[in-house]
Amino acid sequence: MEKLDGFSVSDYLRSFDEESSKGIHLNTRLMDEKSFLSSYGDLFEKLPYGKNAYRSGLDKPGLSPLSHCGLIYSQDPGAMMPVSALPFDIKEGSLILDMCAAPGGKTSMLASVAGNNSVIVANEINTSRNKILQSNMERMGYDNVVITSYDSSKIASIWPSAFDMILIDAPCSGEGMFRKYPEAVNEWSVDNVKNCALRQREIVSNGYLALKDGGIMIYSTCTYSPEENEDIISYLTDEYHMEIIAPCESILKYSAPSLLTDKARRFYPYVAYGEGQFLCILKKSGNDTSHNLYPVTLKAPDKKQLAMISDTLKGNQGLMPGVKINYYNYNNSVIAINKNLLTDDNEMVLNLKPASFERLFVIAGTFDKNRFTPHHHLYKAFGPMFTNIYNPSDDDICKYLRGEELRRDVPNGYGVILYNGAPAGGYKASNGRLKNHYPKGLRNLK
Question: In the predicted model, is pLDDT for residue 25 greater than 90?
């Protein structure tokens, strides 16, 4: 690292005496930045180089009610750079792949800024990390995220030339995390750097195949190793003739040029908030605007099942009139899909078999004998659209998130706890008693 142009060893070592910065990004599908700063500006400081990104004044932002309700996602400021670096807005209706998605911070940023009728495919091959990814996407309440668990070669074979944009936050040797995670030092080795570089070449090659002509690839790592950064970019430009795109100007002041080009950037902890990061934005040649996709028809519930759903979500305990949602049977559950994510024939435009998904949009609920039971995911994704809503006080939201029963004068039936416009979860009211439906495994409020 002493040989890297523009790198200050003394400043870098001095940064280890400072605490890591805590950051969050805002779920702008629930609240705009102006309203957020008006309500919480004393707790969060807007970062000058991040999309909807802030430094956090909370010690543990991930355990706050705002996080439980999906309004914020706790994320290192450096890790917010790859999505923030885009020099343009993502087009409506885009199909986007986050190839190495867990735990889901970058997926969350993409889902928030991409627009309601864009679809994010979040892929994570590791089983335990995939479950964390699912939990985080459910908590954030996104209804436009599909979750898979493929290796990169499988993605390239089933989704050729499919995506408008692919984010590859590649598995790496983790040099940029030494301050935040000291244990990463013991895991580092020259051999690991070389092995990571080989795996990264395989991943970006398959990502290139899955990217449509004219599509955008964001490549990032949390390491300083040139073998895993600049060498990978050179491989993409030499082998596949990809064009390097300059990032937005706002991040230039808070980053250093790469060893290859000023258009690719390195983020050091002594230059900006957050840990180490590398990023480069590339474009695939060509101007094909079509998607190489095939529609998949899902099976709708039968009349009896639809009647059960209607019976549960009827009147004041259901969704507001005019909400356009289609229900389908999938993996022993009922899923809900916004109609703006479907074709005119109510087909899902993805060329994966339904059994291939770990999570397909929103889990609406399950059938139990002659009853339909709503799932937590339904409340999270469509909470603001429910008719029966309770807006709690600060004291009540903490009680609810700890699993306590509330006693409030609200209409009987299913309803949603909506805290400052952000859905915490569901309840079932009966004569002033709100039975708490917040999942027990999530009750970690501090």
Answer: yes
What's the mean per-residue pLDDT of the chain?
A: 91
Instruction: Give the pLDDT confidence score for residue 355 in this predicted structure.
Output: 59
C-alpha span between 103 and 91 (Å, rounded): 25
Q: What angle do CA 421, 423, 426 make, to 5 degrees?
A: 140
- Structural domains of the chain, with CATH: 77-283 (3.40.50.150), 295-386 (3.10.450.220), 388-446 (2.30.130.60)
For 194-227, b/e burial (b = at least 16 CB within 10 A) is eebbeebbebbbbbbbbbbeebbbbbbbbbbbbb
Burial grade of 361 (CB within 10 A; 0-12, 13-18, 19 or more): buried
Q: Amino acid letter at 53?
A: A
Partner residues linked to 74 by β-bridges:
24
In this structure, what DSSP letter does residue 232 have?
Answer: H
Residue 332 Ramachandran class (φ > 0 left, ψ -120 to 50 alpha, else beta) = left
pLDDT in tens, 142-180: 999 999 999 999 999 988 898 999 999 999 999 999 998
Identify the active-site residue in 222, 248, 280, 398.
222
What is the pTM (predicted TM-score) of this model? 0.94
Pairwise CA distance, residues 229 & 233, whole Å? 6
Question: Residue 203's pLDDT is what?
Answer: 98
Active-site residue, 222 included? yes
Q: Does residue 103 have a cis peptide bond before it, meaning omega lies within 30 degrees of 0?
A: yes
